[in-house]
Design brief:
Helix content is about 30%, strand content about 30%. The protein has about 170 residues and is an alpha+beta fold. The protein has a single domain (about 1-165), classed as 3-Layer(aba) Sandwich (Aminopeptidase). Strand 2 and strand 3 (about 50-60) form a beta hairpin. The protein is globular and about 40 Å long.
């Protein structure tokens, strides 16, 4: 498994996968999502396994931590251990990771949360609200998970994510 930075002309395919895998409230519209590629603190990678593109991961570099904004293993490669391989690579590459996950209100959300926890991520106890991606949009209550430890200053981390990722 390796992370391969996407080329700008590959963005349309990645965006179509974002649309398929995230509800509207959990992703940007097309143009803002494409423009964010120019931000020096943001990187978007293919998950490449044995020269096959099996998913993608987007990462914000936020002063002492990496925030995984989106993480997808494409449907045809799910349940094959590739998601765990990708997270292990992220844990090797970056020291402190933070990501959002749906609250365990549905069976699929429970499975996703369990996946992250089995892979060493810790669900922080504090309530977390993902701000809207678009003006007039709705935010979402989510769980904030971290690796390798629980977040010690939750408000500081939340404020950093809000400001740099969501622009609030």
């Amino acid at each position: 498994m390796e992370f391969v930075k996407i080329k700008e002309d590959e963005f349309d395919f990645i965006f179509s996968q974002m649309q398929s895998n995230f509800i509207l409230e959990e992703r940007r519209d097309y143009l803002p999502a494409k423009n964010i590629l120019q931000n020096k603190d943001y990187e978007l990678f293919h998950l490449q396994n044995e020269s096959k593109k099996v998913g993608f991961i987007s990462v914000w570099h936020l002063d002492g931590m990496e925030f995984i904004e989106h993480f997808v293993v494409y449907e045809e490669y799910r349940n094959s251990g590739l998601g765990a391989k990708a997270l292990n690579l992220a844990k090797e590459k970056w020291e402190n990771l933070v990501l959002e996950a749906e609250l365990p209100l549905t069976e699929i959300a429970k499975r996703r949360l369990g996946f992250y926890q089995r892979n060493g991520f810790i669900k922080n106890r504090e309530e977390y609200y993902q701000p809207p991606y678009r003006k007039g949009g709705e935010g979402v209550f989510l769980a904030l998970l971290s690796y390798p430890t629980q977040i010690s200053d939750f408000e500081k981390v939340k404020t950093k994510i809000y400001k740099r990722v969501y622009g609030v």
